[in-house]
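Researcher: Good morning. I'm working through a list of sequences from a screen, and I'd like to move beyond sequence-only analysis. For each chain I'm collecting a predicted structure so we can compare shapes side by side. This is the next one on the list. No need for commentary yet; just the structure.
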Amino acid sequence: MKKYKSSIIVSIVFFIIWEALARYIDAMYILPSPSRIVEKIWLLREPLFLVHLPSTLLVTFIGLAISIVLGVGLAITMSLNEKIEKAIYPIVVVTQTIPITALAPIFVLWFGYSIWSKVVVTILITFFPITVNLYDGLRSTKREMEELLITYGASKRDIFIKLKFPSALPYFFSAIKIAVPLSVIGAAISEWLGSQSGLGYFSKRMMTQLDGAAVFAPIVILSLAAVILVFIINLLENKIIKWRNE
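Model: Good morning. Structure tokens for this chain:
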């Protein structure tokens, strides 16, 4: 708890200033106060938590799972073959130069308002940090250590499993901690641009009614969901990579 003491204090001060400023402006449709947002979340708890949050989380988890498989596969392939790396890496970078807001409507045309139009948007946003970070991690092993294992008769498979993979684990978890918030953002953006359910869709619908607190309510829930997921990833990282803290 001491580790997060400073963050908690800063957050409390931030929300106090926000509350005071919102009450001073007194325009709830422009800047609703935190207390008003919490009240709105409570009033709309059934549609928010029983309908829209599960829809967004489903898109997030499916998109993130596919991104992990795709990113890990690409990173390992590029680290094992330099020619493939030179062919694939520029394409991976180019995928991040195309505005997602321009592609999302196209995916809606292709897949309709099904879950897959939103999953594809989430994958496009999240697979890049996983691929690049893990690829850098696999390349971070010292050449001297590889040569030492070779002198002991280690095969390429042994070097990958016993040296490269463990060395790349911190990079992998760092990538996941970047990808998790991005996956939540990707799901919300896709729902905003074309969906019939989800927190992004709900926020957009409330905006047309000029209900500022109801617009902010899904955003707060999305932020909390991302924080909780990153916290869980941190716990897993500390559990798996024990040697780093020794």
